[in-house]
Specification:
alpha/beta, Rossmann fold, five-stranded parallel β-sheet, 6 helices, about 50% helix
Length: about 190
């Protein structure tokens, strides 16, 4: 699997006024979102897209991208990390993605509910990430097979905002499962340069 880097250019003319710079940045965000949306329909593009750029611009692009994907029913799930330790919990990643998958893809909801009924603690902190990923995300996606709508995307923003290696290991598990099981979706990860 290849990672397709997608740099966000954030240079503006040195002689610009504040209003001109804000308009330029807004247009640059719109262009970046448009390019990413168009690339979703290209079969030859990597299923893993890395969007990188300055923190503020990257977050604004990620938010605009998830909003647009949601409106066009192309957002399977998203997770935004924060430097705030209350919202930066690695144990929330897979339960959050599973919950959002069950909302955005109604055919998956009963499958995820069945997993939760069979093992009520599956969404808990003490459950290994690999088990959560396999049972809450990979299994249900594989179970619906061709009924899975495409193109669908998972957006994970702010990978560089997380503290410690636990979250990076969870994201690495997601990427490995995505490649191994050939999941019918694209993962878009944003981070600082």
């Amino acid at each position: 699997m290849t990672v397709t880097p997608f740099p966000l250019q954030s240079q503006q003319p040195a002689t610009s006024s504040v209003d001109e710079i804000n308009i330029w940045k807004s247009r640059a965000r719109e262009t970046a979102v448009e390019m990413i949306m168009k690339s979703a329909h290209m079969a030859d593009l990597s299923k893993l897209l890395w969007v990188h750029g300055l923190i503020k611009e990257r977050k604004l692009v990620a938010r605009a991208l998830t909003k647009r994907m949601s409106q066009e029913r192309q957002l399977a799930a998203s997770f935004f990390f924060s430097k705030d330790s209350l919202h930066n919990k690695h144990v929330l990643l897979f339960p959050t993605l599973a919950t959002q998958l069950s909302i955005s893809i109604p055919d998956i909801c009963p499958l995820i509910n069945k997993v939760i009924e069979a093992e009520p603690n599956i969404m808990g902190r003490d459950i290994p990430a690999e088990k959560q990923l396999a049972e809450l995300i990979v299994g249900p996606i594989q179970a619906i097979g061709d009924a899975f709508p495409t193109p669908m995307n998972i957006v994970i923003d702010g990978l560089d905002d997380c503290q410690g290696d636990s979250i990076r290991q969870r994201v690495a598990c997601l990427i490995a499962a995505h490649k191994f099981h050939q999941l019918p979706l694209r993962i878009i990860i944003t981070s600082h340069v």
